Amino acid sequence: MSTEEVYQIDETPETPVETHKRSAPKDEEGEEVVNVLELSETRLESQDGDVGEGQAETDENTQRNINSDVEGPENDEKKSLVKKDKKKKKKRPARPQIDADKLKEKQAAPQTGTVYNIWYNKWSGGDREDKYASQTHAEGRCNIARDSGYTKADKVPGSFFCLYFARGICPNGKTCNYLHRLPEVTDIFNPNVDCFGRDKRADYRDDMGGIGSFMRQNRTIYVGRINVTDDIEEVVARHFAEWGDIERVRVLNSRGVAFITYMNEANAQFAKEAMAHQSLDHNEILNVRWATVDPNPLAKAREQRRLEEQAAEAVKKLLPPDYLKELESRALQPAKRRKM
């Protein structure tokens, strides 16, 4: 074999590579176009039918992305259901506010007169004294954010609220047979009883204290003996907003008196018991009672309109959403016919 022939044989492997690079097709803009079929064949030949670990992971990731894009709404619904289940599981039990051993037994009122009046729960016929000067602070105070939770009453429809929980002295916690939370709009009770299950009277007491009357719905409470400061309105609104949504707050700065009107009557009943003999930012002892009727005709009309709106809102929350949409569509049909 001659040297020229050997030289030609040695150069034969290099020649196709150079021609392949130079002979690649180009598009109109002059860029090279890669043949997908040729690349796939070369890839299969190089891998000999085996898929590497890195390629398998990328294929799985792409498949997951495709599935997530295709099943997006269904996955969102599943995620929302899982979140709701987690929220239900995270619902905490009610916390005992005081220890049962430290709970003081209810003692009889000290005798300050000759006759004990069972209606007003006090002595009468004795020497006159300032009844507010002898008042003492409440034994405890309810903290909604810390004390509220589920109890045995959550499983029983129509359960009443715990009076001792509102006063901050319930030792039972989750074993209590009454509700340990704030009243809501959907909590509807018989007009003859309050949210704690106590029977109302036909008339209010002379001092506007006690449970109240079933003759009218009262959402306004009177608060007296407030320490007068420059920010008295802000202080009153901040403390009484803990017990529910407030519609209106009226403060008489010179007299240290406030009138708080709640959106719901049950919240007013709860606030009256929760703030009785409590103090705000100072060491005062509050005098909380029911407010008298507002004689203003505009106030009466406003109250009637509010009751109608509240009843309609409560009914809407109890009805299914599909039925509400059907009712709304029916209500719009006559209006369209009139326009035509």
Uncertain parts? 1-23, 49-54
Q: Please tally the helical runs, counting DSSP H or I stretches of 4 or more residues.
A: 11
Strand content: 5-15%
The dominant shape is globular
Structural class: alpha+beta
Order of strands in the sheet with most strands: 4-5-3-6
Helix content: 40-55%
What's the alpha carbon Rg, rounded to whole Å?
Answer: 38 Å
- Sheet bearing the most strands, described? 4 strands, antiparallel
Separation of the first and last Cα atoms:
105 Å
Average pLDDT = 76
User: Total strand count, please?
Assistant: 6
Please provide the ordered H/E string of secondary-structure elements: HHHHHEEHHEHEEHEHH
What would your notes on this structure say?
The chain is 40% helix and 8% strand. It has 340 residues and is an alpha+beta fold. 15% of the residues are buried.
Note the topology.
Elements: H1 3-11, H2 14-22, H3 36-47, H4 53-70, H5 72-90, E1 115-117, E2 122-124, H6 144-147, H7 163-167, E3 220-224, H8 232-240, E4 246-252, E5 257-262, H9 265-274, E6 287-290, H10 297-318, H11 321-339
Antiparallel strand pairs: 1-2, 3-5, 3-6, 4-5
Give a short overview.
This protein has 340 residues and is an alpha+beta fold. The chain contains eleven helices and six strands. 40% of the residues lie in helices and 8% in strands.
Q: Main traits of this protein?
A:
single chain, 340 residues, alpha+beta, two-stranded antiparallel sheet, 11 helices, 8% strand, disordered N terminus
